[in-house]
Amino acid sequence: MARISQDHGIIQYIVDNKSTGVSVDNIAKATGLSTRDVTVLLDYMANQSMIQGISRGTYGPTKCSYISLDPLVKDAVIHL
């Protein structure tokens, strides 16, 4: 899931829009993924504390979100 979210820029998008939170529909439009796929990804990521659920269908970043954007972590995910 980390690789998929990184490839599609999902965590970066959530961090860039942290002040308002990001809806599933906005992420689906930004990434080109289906709403269903984005919902599954975000629910999983929220359960793993990679992001946080702010309200139903709206997500924001966690400390883990920022760590995952570190270049060294990005490189490690690419090579998994």
Protein described:
With 80 residues, the chain is of the alpha+beta class. It has a single domain, classed as Arc Repressor Mutant, subunit A (Orthogonal Bundle). Helices cover 60% and strands 14% of the residues. It has 6 helices and 3 strands, in the order ααβααββαα. The protein has helices at 2-7, 10-16, 24-31, 35-47, 63-68, 71-78; strands at residues 22-23, 51-55, 58-61. Strands 1-3-2 form a 3-stranded antiparallel beta sheet. A hairpin with a 2-residue loop joins strand 2 (51-55) and strand 3. It starts with a helix and ends with a helix.
* DSSP strand tally: 3
**Low-pLDDT segments, ≥5 res:** none
Which strand order does the major sheet show? 1-3-2
> According to CATH, what is the topology?
Arc Repressor Mutant, subunit A
H-E string:
HHEHHEEHH
Based on helices, strands and strand pairing, what is the structural class? alpha+beta
Mean pLDDT: 88
CATH class designation: Mainly Alpha
In whole angstroms, the N-to-C terminal distance is 11 Å
Helical fraction: 55-70%
In DSSP terms (H or I, runs of 4 or more residues), the helix count works out at: 6
CATH architectural name: Orthogonal Bundle
Strand content: 5-15%
Q: What overall geometry do the principal axes of the alpha carbons give?
A: globular
For CATH, the homologous superfamily is named as Winged helix-like DNA-binding domain superfamily/Winged helix DNA-binding domain
Described by strand count, sense and barrel closure, the largest sheet is: 3 strands, antiparallel
The total domain count is 1
Rounded to the nearest angstrom, the radius of gyration is: 11 Å
